[in-house]
Amino acid sequence: MDIIMHIPSMIELETIFMLRNKIKSKH
């Protein structure tokens, strides 16, 4: 389990945040 080894970068966080916002907007 290398979960700790993977630290999401700011770009990844922003991408996920934008994707979640788009999904919520469609609702």
Automatic annotation (TrEMBL):
It comes from the Eukaryota. This is Uncharacterized protein. It comes from Rhizophora mucronata (Asiatic mangrove).
